[in-house]
């Protein structure tokens, strides 16, 4: 297959800059540039968009994003060892690539970005979930981003797209699907990474909806869903007792049998319950 750019292959980049993967930084690199270009294509039409990338490492996905036509890529990378390799990419794409050296959980890159903004990342899994929750719970909706294209442990990806009635269905599914369209766009075996992680991975793509799928107050919805799934085996009239003394009446008014368990309740029904509770 043809090269996606004029830069050296990633194995060479890693050898030249001695980027041995560090477990403490969750480093499992993608070294196949055709694969990183494929992931970048899942991020949607990048032309005319600024892309925020978290954790570029040696830059495989970065190169995919740039080759796929991103107007600009802004990357946040914690590992200073990666900076010289990333500088080579900046030199090859003048004015289109900038790196901030720091922790994505501490830095607010917003001031460096111009809308429309898409986010793409192959991140350590713990940081990925935390950032996803932050990106899905901004103070105002629509958020600053148009879409998120993120690598997750397969099991977490399944929780994001889960439907009622499945074990994977819970807070993450409600949070993601309330204000975004979420789907798994790619599955990757451990062998796609260097070094291979223990589990399979999947890329999830989320498109922000202009407004929530069903009206509800974000704080009330979040409290209800947290209480319901914290005791997911209990009937809702028991698990939600702490939310309101009249919970049975509110459940009935929302059209939810009080004997139902959280796992069976649709996003639409949770939103109806949040609206009933807001009236009280
Ligand atoms: N994107 C590269 C790829 O696909 O080959 C690297 C992926 S590797 C799974 C995760 C990257 O995130 C590493 O480069 C690591 O140094 C970086 N990283 C880890 N924690 C971070 C954090 N809190 N903020 C920014 N980058 C972080």
From TrEMBL:
Its main location: cytoplasm. It catalyses: adenosine(1518)/adenosine(1519) in 16S rRNA + 4 S-adenosyl-L-methionine = N(6)-dimethyladenosine(1518)/N(6)-dimethyladenosine(1519) in 16S rRNA + 4 S-adenosyl-L-homocysteine + 4 H(+). InterPro entries: KsgA/Erm (IPR001737), rRNA_Ade_diMease-like_C (IPR023165), rRNA_Ade_Mease_Trfase_CS (IPR020596), rRNA_Ade_methylase_Trfase_N (IPR020598), rRNA_adenine_dimethylase (IPR011530), SAM-dependent_MTases_sf (IPR029063). Residues 35-210 form the Ribosomal RNA adenine methylase transferase N-terminal domain. The keyword S-adenosyl-L-methionine applies. SMART domains: rADc. It is found in: Cytoplasm. Keywords: Cytoplasm, Methyltransferase, RNA-binding, rRNA processing, S-adenosyl-L-methionine, Transferase. S-adenosyl-L-methionine binds at residues 28, 30, 55, 77, 103, 122. GO terms for molecular function: 16S rRNA (adenine(1518)-N(6)/adenine(1519)-N(6))-dimethyltransferase activity. Its EC number is 2.1.1.182. It is an enzyme of class 2 (transferase). Signal peptide: none annotated. CDD domains: AdoMet_MTases (cd02440). NCBIfam families: ksgA (TIGR00755). Belongs to the class I-like SAM-binding methyltransferase superfamily. rRNA adenine N(6)-methyltransferase family. RsmA subfamily. Specifically dimethylates two adjacent adenosines (A1518 and A1519) in the loop of a conserved hairpin near the 3'-end of 16S rRNA in the 30S particle. May play a critical role in biogenesis of 30S subunits. This is Ribosomal RNA small subunit methyltransferase A. It comes from Leisingera caerulea. The lineage of its organism: Bacteria, Pseudomonadati, Pseudomonadota, Alphaproteobacteria, Rhodobacterales.
